[in-house]
Amino acid sequence: MENKIAELFARIEAGELSADEALNLIKKNEMIGDDYFIDRHRKQRLGFDEIIFGMSKTVDQIAKITDKYKQEKLDFICTGLDDRKIDILKKRYPEFEFIPKAGIMKNISSVPPKIKGKAAIITAGTSDAKVAHETGEILNCLGVNCEKFIDIGVAGIHRIFHFKKEIAESNVLIVIAGMEGALPTVIGGIFAQPVVAVPASVGYGVSAGGYSALLSMLSSCAGGITVVNIDNGFGAAMAAFRILKSGQVEK
Amino acid sequence: MENKIAELFARIEAGELSADEALNLIKKNEMIGDDYFIDRHRKQRLGFDEIIFGMSKTVDQIAKITDKYKQEKLDFICTGLDDRKIDILKKRYPEFEFIPKAGIMKNISSVPPKIKGKAAIITAGTSDAKVAHETGEILNCLGVNCEKFIDIGVAGIHRIFHFKKEIAESNVLIVIAGMEGALPTVIGGIFAQPVVAVPASVGYGVSAGGYSALLSMLSSCAGGITVVNIDNGFGAAMAAFRILKSGQVEK
Amino acid sequence: MENKIAELFARIEAGELSADEALNLIKKNEMIGDDYFIDRHRKQRLGFDEIIFGMSKTVDQIAKITDKYKQEKLDFICTGLDDRKIDILKKRYPEFEFIPKAGIMKNISSVPPKIKGKAAIITAGTSDAKVAHETGEILNCLGVNCEKFIDIGVAGIHRIFHFKKEIAESNVLIVIAGMEGALPTVIGGIFAQPVVAVPASVGYGVSAGGYSALLSMLSSCAGGITVVNIDNGFGAAMAAFRILKSGQVEK
Amino acid sequence: MENKIAELFARIEAGELSADEALNLIKKNEMIGDDYFIDRHRKQRLGFDEIIFGMSKTVDQIAKITDKYKQEKLDFICTGLDDRKIDILKKRYPEFEFIPKAGIMKNISSVPPKIKGKAAIITAGTSDAKVAHETGEILNCLGVNCEKFIDIGVAGIHRIFHFKKEIAESNVLIVIAGMEGALPTVIGGIFAQPVVAVPASVGYGVSAGGYSALLSMLSSCAGGITVVNIDNGFGAAMAAFRILKSGQVEK
Amino acid sequence: MENKIAELFARIEAGELSADEALNLIKKNEMIGDDYFIDRHRKQRLGFDEIIFGMSKTVDQIAKITDKYKQEKLDFICTGLDDRKIDILKKRYPEFEFIPKAGIMKNISSVPPKIKGKAAIITAGTSDAKVAHETGEILNCLGVNCEKFIDIGVAGIHRIFHFKKEIAESNVLIVIAGMEGALPTVIGGIFAQPVVAVPASVGYGVSAGGYSALLSMLSSCAGGITVVNIDNGFGAAMAAFRILKSGQVEK
Amino acid sequence: MENKIAELFARIEAGELSADEALNLIKKNEMIGDDYFIDRHRKQRLGFDEIIFGMSKTVDQIAKITDKYKQEKLDFICTGLDDRKIDILKKRYPEFEFIPKAGIMKNISSVPPKIKGKAAIITAGTSDAKVAHETGEILNCLGVNCEKFIDIGVAGIHRIFHFKKEIAESNVLIVIAGMEGALPTVIGGIFAQPVVAVPASVGYGVSAGGYSALLSMLSSCAGGITVVNIDNGFGAAMAAFRILKSGQVEK
Amino acid sequence: MENKIAELFARIEAGELSADEALNLIKKNEMIGDDYFIDRHRKQRLGFDEIIFGMSKTVDQIAKITDKYKQEKLDFICTGLDDRKIDILKKRYPEFEFIPKAGIMKNISSVPPKIKGKAAIITAGTSDAKVAHETGEILNCLGVNCEKFIDIGVAGIHRIFHFKKEIAESNVLIVIAGMEGALPTVIGGIFAQPVVAVPASVGYGVSAGGYSALLSMLSSCAGGITVVNIDNGFGAAMAAFRILKSGQVEK
Amino acid sequence: MENKIAELFARIEAGELSADEALNLIKKNEMIGDDYFIDRHRKQRLGFDEIIFGMSKTVDQIAKITDKYKQEKLDFICTGLDDRKIDILKKRYPEFEFIPKAGIMKNISSVPPKIKGKAAIITAGTSDAKVAHETGEILNCLGVNCEKFIDIGVAGIHRIFHFKKEIAESNVLIVIAGMEGALPTVIGGIFAQPVVAVPASVGYGVSAGGYSALLSMLSSCAGGITVVNIDNGFGAAMAAFRILKSGQVEK
């Protein structure tokens, strides 16, 4: 917003705008619907289009937002959808793309600018695959190239070494694990890249909900591992995006 | 006790004992002090001498019990002693043996019967050493042969492979780790022996108190790992003792 | 894997293999499907066939893995299945065996090598029976002989004594209890064998989810009790298997 | 208070009192100090004298209250005192009685009316003794006869049977245990009397602070066990007092 | 069991029984079904008939147990049944009595011996009524006279005073409350009888599951309140039964 | 009640009433149904009509209470209703008003006295809207004027500044947020009015259930923010009502 | 800050300021020290002077800040000081005022503008007094008139009624309680004013740290109670200040 | 290690080495002390020298490790030291450098290779400074340029805008906050760079230990924020190091 203010300062100084007009300009430019406020400067500020978090919204709320985007011909991606919501939305919006195994509905017309570098998405087990698919989809939307390595967890530690070369060539490592969540620690001890650890809500008893994986990752004895919320594939993708974009900045 | 009852049944039947005499015999044989009850059948029942848990007892309570054992010339080992308690007890009982780095005071005159097999005590870091030393001392008292492998944790996973041969020759593996507690999972994925995992109260933030290590070990994706309480070197030693003794039973 | 590497070292030294061929050999030999990675060395490393954890996998994922095993004529056991999943899978794989009260689907053609010794599976109540049945099934697949003692919990402590002789003849005791989880402590105070305690998610209020039983078992005043995750019948069976196999090793 | 109001209604009706005088009478009769409010009707309402909870009060606050009681020649008992507070208070009030092993200071001149019946105080270990001593002292002040059975916990379950007869003759059983807290469950399964379970803050790791014992007691599979706060010897004594007094009521 | 053993001692001594016969007698007398163990001495030991906890049992398990009781013409009460289970069981056992609002199925032919004294069941709100009804039903089965006072919680504290006389005439007070659980504290400050507090799983957010009520009751500043598990109407009834029976013992 | 007692004192003194009549008057005036106790003095004491908390009541219990209110022609509002309950109640009471997006059923005939001042209801996201709607409805029933600002959370902090003027003109700010719950802190740092923060149960992983938002709000570094239970729109409305009414009192 | 921006807009428009000058003005006006940033607009924005939270700062950090305030002759109040810090600071700043029982150091030269209305500070016990004193001191600094009612908790509920008139005349009620934290619920059921509940870290076992009081207050069945962090006397004072100031606004 | 193995494969193939010699080479090259295992390949693997975590080690253990490094003339940095440990170590190693405000002892002779890019270290308050200083020291040792912005937290949100330009020029943002931990969310909503959030153990009540800040950061509604353990300045520095190094890789 500061950029905007600086620009408005300049325009008022130049006599192009009154103070009141300046304030109104801000308000109008970022219209508000009934229950929703479109953040039109996010792309400019943070570099990515609207990503709607569908998990805690009702189908009605999602539809209202989607209608707006559709009407304004804006790209979007909606995450965190369960099968029931996808079924309803599919009927309503047959023109959108749906990826059920990733819990995603999207409508992207423009090709995102290609981000340099590559992300590796590594999971400990088969059960973590949904988070991996969500992460991969979002990375694609953000213009990030990525590769997946599924089911190479710690119980059979030799599986990691199979892909050592491929992993070593990635610029950021997203590591997803449930249960005891040991995989990011092992990966972080072998590889020097940034590691974004994602606890998965896989398991039962004390593992239920992903808490033991979360604590394990935060406690990791391998230095420099960072963690996002449980099942937060979106957050991991965004973190990788931030990291790769940062690497392109002239330093 | 059932054995005893069976024996008493037999003796009453044989007319050697009246019913009343039988009941009194039980009571007398297991005398009680003021605040303490000596379990004289434990060795017969479970195969080990008295091990006094000193952590939650006052020095006065420990001394009262110790005096009794001393007077009756009974062997004992007292665990969970901090430096302050050791200092006081050392002055009072110069004839006893003290191992401060293991938090132990003991008075053992008899050589325990040798248990077949060997235990490996493996720790993730230097900070876990105290628990390892306690475990080792108790195993010695129980007649169990053991070897220690300190500071070979997961952050540098190649360190495990250095000792692969030695570990593979042990019959039971006691694995101690704090922080994210990943070591038992990795060990359990490589080796086929029984693994007794001990969470250590090493770390800060979410690792503080050993809870993340505990949860990680209980959640382990490597099948068949069992866990004892945090810092419970005594429990791990007893479990190894139970396992090794069980292996000697004719099957 | 080290064994393999040692063997490959030897073969390269012998000129049978180039370094590159050695690396490729490892990769090929452990093929990967789309979402799943078959660990072909597990049996050699740890001594047991594939056990698939079905609880956190979708029916589709289970089916994909199962198809692979079926096609390759490999034995497997799949655990943690609820009634809904069993119904679907039963229709798809009428040739497999289903044990709903244990939550298990399996396809085992070979007879496992008999493990020496015997395991006792003891439960506190009727409600813990499902975990006991799962444990028993897996032990059978692993070649372990076992006997069940259901509903002999602490509230009527005399029930334990009825089976004292049978329990005393087992080489490892798996004790399953929900609610206050006191049974392993009592068992561990009477019997000298290894005790593997399994908290059951039986109860309501503070017992809900099995946490009070878990804490109770970890806190046990009876030395040498070890614990696995809540409802983890698989883990308990594997631990017993490790213990009994360890007892057969020449010491 | 209602009793009082009823009486005042009657007196106003009888013309002995104006409405305003009635309200003032209530206020005066229950004078307030600076930081403390003496509850002069408690004995009449609940049947016991003032018991001051000293744990969360500063020595200064305790002294201010004590001075008041001393000056008015009122009996009191002050609980929850650590060694430091006892040392300071002992110097200031040499005329009072101090029981350090129970954490108690008291000044009781009158003999309490004897309550019918007897309470048994049973502890699992030596470490629980302090709570037992506090409980015993308060019961004495309340006129309740009691007997202590220390260190007869579950790990050696036969110890309970030694005192079966004595325990069976008590009218209420106060059972104190730390660690896994199994003793009240076992006691409750054998004996038919009211059981008041007291978790003790004995133990380390998951037992620390008495939480596993608390959960275990609340989860007990033995019907009708009731629980008080951790280390709450005062509460247990009061509960026993309420129970025994209730038994004396004509029914 | 000790009684039994004492009796057997005597009979062996008298030559009526051999030692072996004595052991067999115990086993036979307490037959075991497949998944269930009937505790035939409970009534003698603790004074009440079988109460089956139906919540964590499957309908099949309940039916198996019920069939046994039916066939042996034994009285029973089964608690913790939800509407689905009641519907199924009602069809199968039309001859039994069902009380859905209490979650209970029962088959009681004999009139229980009348226990002297009276219990008051007090709830804070309408939502706690189910627990109150369960408690009341069980008390009836145990021969205890009781009266209910529903929805007189702390938010309108004058409601308690309406029933002061009736409550004061009861010998034990069972107080059920969810949310902040303050009612037992207020009741315990006004009345001198034993108070058994039952946290109810009423509420949302931090009250969800009854935990804040539980902690509140355990923390109560009113001395001598005892607590049972959340929603544990059965436990509260049993505690009241123990208390009232204890009051009848000759002291 | 005290007011009442004072009045009754006066009337007895005046000879208009006997003491007994006074006591009966209290009882009669606050009739009790079977499971429910109408608090007829609440409006007089606290200034608002009956608000029934429908979440933890069964439809039957709600209907019984509603029938009573209908029959006595009393206003009420019933909150916390999910879609299933609303469907059933709508059929039964077509004459009542239902607001599903707020979870509310109501029957209000009288216009509440207008409270001076205005409340702002501010939410961080679209997902928090249900709580906002409940809050708004209750405020209307209480005669409080309010305005809603939906979806202006911290991730795009400039959105707050758009409504700075409108927010600044409100007398009390109700701020609803899930996830990390940062919005009340930011609001409280900018505006000087009373802030009532409502954690919303929006989010997954560590945010699930609203706990991270709750802790965040209680920990706020912005002084003077107060917090109500998770999703407690009712409580927030009542707090605002108390605050605005207090402002009208002559000081 | 917006006010400032609006003003700057106007001044730029008026030609008094260039855009660059405007930006620099903001930065300069809010100078920064080494480790500390004085918020010079807080009084203007929120209406109160600097209150330094001393609990988590070292004595050195406090001294650095204090020196700055002293040198600039600015008023301040520093809270959360323990006895050790107060001793050190007293020697260094003999000219400041210290209130150890409230944990406060302050240097206030100007008389704050009188806020209309009155706050009542009510505590459940003697042990909560420190929080009450802190609250009172801060209210004084903020120009708020207040009265304290100490030790009138729920265990003797009649004590509240003694002060009914005085409490009823206050405009906002700050209610401090540890243990089971029931007092705010009872107060909130009797009085119609805003209630700010403060959990106190008084108690042991499950009450330790103030958590049971916190949950109890958040769960309160009395509508419209709001809560601040445990022991947060500062927050309660600030909330009362916000409320009373809001009441003075022209509506 | 794989690199090493690949190299050894090649050398064996080339006939330079026998298979046995290859295995021994690995073991020797990574000598082990008594309680400590130097990881000589870490720098090669991960790019940084040894960083010793001093918090959970005794002074004796630290000294033993330090002696080894000193004797071998190796650089090291030891973190997590409290004042007591620093005092003892200072006397023993006067030649080392100590930074008490960062809890660090170090001995670095070589200048680290300069890493491109810059890190910003931002804290919410003065109390978070220690973590910031630790982070800064480690970054320096790793060759990373960094700048600190202390005490610019959310309660006065305008303070962030003062440094907008400087922050915008950094390539990675380390944001440290205790209490409600809202700062990373706000920063992440304004700036597009990678954000590494560090919860600080600042606060009391529910903030104590840094848990509310941790949960808040993991729950952040601003996409792509990653989190490390509470007070984990070391982890944050390592994460920034990984990110900046990754940015230099040719992509």
TrEMBL record, chains A, B, C, D, E, F, G, H:
Protein name (record): 1-(5-phosphoribosyl)-5-amino-4-imidazole-carboxylate (AIR) carboxylase
Gene3D superfamilies for the chain: 3.40.50.1970
GO biological process: 'de novo' IMP biosynthetic process
Domain PurE: residue ranges: 117-249
One term of GO molecular function: hydrolase activity
Annotated source species: Flexistipes sinusarabici (strain ATCC 49648 / DSM 4947 / MAS 10)
Signal peptide: none
